[in-house]
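Deliverable D5.2: sample structural annotation.
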Amino acid sequence: MTVIRPVAPADLPAVAAIYAHYVTTSVATFEETPPDVAEWRAKAEGLARAGCPFLVAEEDGEVAGYSFAGQYRPRPAYRHTLEDSVYLAPGRTGRGIGRLLLGELVAAARAAGARQLVAVIADGGDPASRRLHAAFGFEEAGRLREVGFKHGRWIDTVLMQLTLR
């Protein structure tokens, strides 16, 4: 059984490991050096101070994935727009965990008073994230061409947006 709950400090090593997998093996993120647990702790604390959701999916006592939403851009006028992130542990994809995480994240962003939720998705050839977001009503809002260079190739990003109110 999968339980979606707020992140706890004890979850952060698993969160860091999940993200490190994507940083080092994929173009799902444009980061090139995985953040350490201290950086994740600072991120979690910053999200909590801002009233933004940070959730984990737990299965059999292990973190199977996580999601969070933070302010889309730092300027004050963007304060009602959040950007989401959803990552699953290797071997835990294709089982509905991402759907559970995103569903709870959308509800939490709405409850936090956000007006818009934006997904910035690297278009590296795997449509899973776009399909997941579309299932929740996100619509494609644009494409930024060749804005990231990782693993020897140029990558587009697709912007998807969901109006929460």
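Annotation notes: The beta strands are 2-6, 54-59, 62-71, 81-88, 116-123, 139-150, 153-163. The mean pLDDT is 97.
The annotation will be released with the project's public dataset once the embargo ends.
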